[in-house]
Amino acid sequence: MFYDHGYMAGMHLGWWLVWLVIGVGVFLVLRNSGTSRDASQGPTPPDTPMDILKRRLASGDITPEEFEQRAALLRKHPV
Hints:
Elements: H1 9-41, H2 49-59, H3 64-76
């Protein structure tokens, strides 16, 4: 009765389009949610040799004496 001569056929197509638009919108929001935080922070500058030396001291890779020797060398011959 309602589908006589195409009556309500447009409504069926309309709902499919509504769900399609909602699905695409959710996809775009989810895809961009992770990158927006990274893009707002900008690129991180590379570590300086002194930063690397401090990190190695903190992790225990080198002793404080080695740190002082290498830091003095870096201060004498900056990179």
